[in-house]
Amino acid sequence: MELIDTHCHLDFEPLSDLSNMSTLDHTLGLAKAEGVSTIVLPAVTASRWSRVLDLCGLNTEIQLIPALGLHPCFLDDHADQDLLHLESLLTTYKDTVKAIGETGLDLFIENPGSIASSNCLTSRLSWLSHLTCR
């Protein structure tokens, strides 16, 4: 059976250390041994987008697909210009980026700032509808 992991943060240390590929290679080897053929890597902040794109550009036995997004748990790290940067990356990497993520509401965290998270999600959805309707 061919499996797809739709949510794996390979962009976090120690897996993302491109100067020492042994941990990433080992992890991908374990996934492949279990039948995983594809992994989607969702980025949580704009500062991680290039790392996710770099990882997905590696020649690995498992297909790595980037998903670029702005996670609501990191509201303090997001800036208004991030959406413009994301739009630019989606244009540049239109054949590579297959998903937008992370984004949404995460109400499991203490003091999630649900109004701020909701506003964040609403602005992302509005922006996405603009982007996809062109």
Question: How would you describe what is shown here?
Answer:
The chain is α/β, with parallel strands linked by helices. It has one domain: TIM Barrel, CATH 3.20.20. Helix content is 38%, strand content 13%. Strands 1-2-3-4 form a four-stranded parallel beta sheet. It is globular, with a radius of gyration of 16 Å.
CATH topology label? TIM Barrel
Tell me the Rg in angstroms: 16 Å
The tally of strands reads 4
CATH H-level superfamily title: Metal-dependent hydrolases
- The order of strands across the largest sheet is 1-2-3-4
- Looking at the overall shape, the CATH architecture is Alpha-Beta Barrel
The secondary structure category is: alpha/beta
Report the CATH C-level class. Answer: Alpha Beta
Report the uncertain regions: none
What is the number of helical segments per DSSP (H or I, 4+ residues)?
4
Q: What is the overall pLDDT average?
A: 80
The H/E string reads EHEHEHEH
The helix content, as a percent range, equals 25-40%
Strand content: 5-15%
- CA-CA gap between termini: 38 Å
Count of folded domains:
1
Main sheet record: 4 strands, parallel
Shape: globular
